[in-house]
Structure formats: C-alpha cells, structure tokens
Prior knowledge:
Elements: H1 7-16, E1 25-28, H2 36-48, E2 54-56, E3 60-63, H3 81-93, E4 100-103, H4 116-122, E5 126-130, E6 133-137, E7 147-149, H5 157-163, E8 171-174, H6 186-196, E9 200-203, E10 207-211, E11 219-221, H7 227-234, E12 245-247, H8 260-267, E13 277-281, H9 288-299, E14 302-305, H10 306-319, H11 329-337, E15 341-344, E16 347-350, E17 353-354, H12 362-372, H13 375-386, E18 394-398, H14 401-405, E19 411-416, H15 419-432, H16 439-455, E20 468-471, H17 477-491
Parallel strand pairs: 7-8, 11-12, 13-18, 13-19, 14-18, 19-20
Antiparallel strand pairs: 1-3, 2-3, 4-6, 5-6, 8-10, 9-10, 15-16, 16-17
Helix pairs in contact: 1-2, 5-7, 9-17, 10-12, 11-13, 15-16
Amino acid sequence: MRGDVSSQFLTALLMALPLVATQDIVIEVVGELISKPYIEITLNMLERFGIAVRREGWQRFTIPAGSRYQSPGEIHVEADASSASYFVALGAVAATGKPVRIEGVGAGSIQGDIRFVEAAGLMGAIVKSGPNWLEVWRGAWPLQAVDLDCNHIPDAAMTLAVLALYANGTTTLRNIASWRVKETDRLAAMATELRKLGAEVEEGADFLRITPPRAWTPAAIHTYDDHRMAMCFSLAAFNPAGVHVRILDPKCVAKTFPDYFETLFSVARTDAPHIPVICVDGPSASGKGTLASEVARRLGYHYLDSGALYRIAGLAATRAGLVLDVEHEHSIARMAEALPIAFVDGRVLLQGLDVTDAIRTEEAGMNASKVSALPAVRTALVALQQGFRRLPGLVADGRDMGTVIFPDAPLKVYLTASAAQRAERRHKQLISKGISATLAALRADLEARDARDSSRAVAPLKPAVDALLLDNSSQSVEESVAQVLQWWGEKQAFVPR
C-alpha cells in the first residue's frame, strides 16, 4: 500500500483477510497512514472477536495463520463519538448554567474522536464522565485559544474550528491535510465560511489559523453537500452578538445524523419571538400552499397550512353531525381545541388517519370558510397554530397569518393573482383529478369567497400593513420562491459572498 493510505481501505483489509488466513498474511503500509485512531478501533474490535493482529508501528500488520472470528457473546455498541462532539461543543458555549448530557459514549470510549473532549477541556469546557455518558458545562469564557495537532481527531477537529470563533485569541489547528480529501476540500470550505462570519483565517497546506471576529457578521453558510459542515456551523448560531446564521441545504446531515437538527433543537431553547416566521397570506387559489411549502423546504423550516386546520375542523364537525353555523359555534370550538392533527411528509393526518384528499375538495373548502367565520372556532385554533412556531423556523400560509396569528413575523408576504388566473389554475387542478368544472363557475365561486372572507367581522382577509405584495399572475413557482427567498435574505441581513 503506497501513498497517503486511507484508514477505511486498511480497515477493510484487516476485517476481510482473517477469512482467508491459511498462512500469515502481512500488510505493509508505504507512506502516511491517515486517521490512525480509526485503525486503533479496528484492531480493538478484531481482538474482541478473537483476531489478534500483530502490529509493528503503523507500517506493518500481520494476521496470524488460522485466525478465526469468535463471538464475544455480548458487546456494547458505542454511540458515535464524532457526532457527540457537536454537543460537547454546545455544552462549552451554552450559557445555561446546566450541563449538556450526552448518553451512549463516555471518556473511556475506544473511538479516537473521544479525545475531542480533551481538546474542549483545553479550551475551557468543564466535563464529567461516566461509563457511557458525558456532561459538559461552559467553564472559561471566552474560550481559551489553543494550538493543537489534530491528526488524532481528524473529523471532530472541524468542530474545534467553529469553537475557535468563541476564543480569546488565535487558534491553530495543525496536521489536518486529510481534510482536503473528504466530502469536499474541508480546509478551503472551512476557511471560506469562517470568514463570512467575520473571522480572520489563514489557510495552509495542512493547517488553519483562526482569529475570532471583531464583529460577528450574519451569514448564509454553504455546506458543500458535506454533513459535517452543516453540523459544525450550526454552533455559530449561539454567537453572543445574536446575529443570524443560515445553514444552506441542512438536509445533507442525512448521511450520518438524519435527525441532527431535531436533536439540537430538543436541547436548545429560545423565546418564541426569536424563532423566525415567514407568513404567506392571500386569497383562495393564489398558490399560497405551493409557494409556502417550497420556501419551507428550501430553508429547512417547519410548514403550517393554516387552511388545512380550518378544513379539518369543518370535516371533523360535519362528521360529528354538527351544522356549521352560529348555533353550534361553541361545540365546534371545543372540538377544534383538541384536534389531533399531524403534518407528515406532505400528508395531513387526523387521529392518525390520512385526510389529505378529503379536505381538498371544493365542499371542504367552503366548509373551511364557514367555520373560519365563527369567532369561537378561530380563537380555539389560534393557539394551535401558534404552537407550530418551533426551531429552526416556520413558514405559515393562510389568510390571517400576518395580521392575527404571527403579527410580529419579520417577513409577511401577501400573494395574489387575478380571479381569472386563479380560476384557470383551479380548473386545471380539478380536470387533472377527473373532476368536471367550468371556468365561469369556478371564477364566480372564488369571487364570492373573496367577498365573504374580506368582509367578515373577525380577521378579514387583507394584507398586513407591513406585508410585501406579490402578484404571481405571470410568475412561475420558481420565480415566486426566488423572490420570497431574496426578501428573506434581505430581512435577515445575510451577506451574499
């Protein structure tokens, strides 16, 4: 084996060759072995399974003749230490006075990346450890700048680069040339994205030298389809300046930690007014749902189809035999308060049953308009809608998102189109589903609904005073989405670089 040798390649050989070891098998490494701690893990695990590899430094490995795998009986499978590094780092910077507890891996782990704990300690974190758990608090603040050889923690060292933003001086991370041959050129990528936040960065062939920002700068962080870039830079959101940090393409974490952000937000807390909300209001068939759901997908935010809530309330009430009028207003409101609703992968569930198609009929739309005119029902559903405001953010569409439900939303969009254009869109939708309809009738229905929604006494349909108007009569969905994302970037002061 010649050149810079991949630990993954060597691990594969070490695991496979015992199956054919009728005589001693020798592996010679010529060149530099990358990520030696991972080979340590491999050798440790092989020994537990009865394979005693003889090692001479890092250049020669001998698998004895007659080697056979033997079951160890029971074995504890540790959690991933490199994934734990993000939460160790969170504990080092979080100003909560309470520890971040990480279960499944302890300081006695056989994984090389567990030594990230030592590095965090050098920077000032306070760490306690048990057999399979860690607890981490903020200690020294600001963190202490360090100069470290990081060859023993090549992946976890990326997290140190972001911790360096919180240090009291210049931090140097050395012996990290392997970063250049990962999912992306991580040395170049880290340097580029750290600079966006205001840091001064010197990038060398195998090192990074990072000086914290004099003034933090809001930034949209490119992830280069690299899961570790996304997870590392999420920690920049805890900056003391309170500037916004946007992680582009957050779903790239699916490679190793699909629910990373959900896990992060389960331990991170912020007041509701600090959770970003984009409101998309407008009349029926204006394309609110299509626009809002795509914007939410692009940003990695939660999505609320408020119209679905009213449609579900109308559906549940009619199934319960209630007439949608003032006489039954309070009965419908009591039912609406406890509606077990879930939005899952574009589907709408009521009591675990898929009602997506049932609430998208014309009848369901008319029923939604009727129940939305009942003040007690609207009051019952306000808290339910506001509960969708969760980290990392929310895109909500409806008719009063910006005027009633989220009046403090930093971006409010009022989406509209001509009645003729909206009727044509609805006509195409219905025809594609095999439902007969005429343009004239659809236009009349839309105009009647517009009049009813805009003249009702409670939360009439109208733009918020600070809403941005978007007429999409002649726009494609992509053009509308691009416009909203541009407005959002301007509102959040993200600097394009």
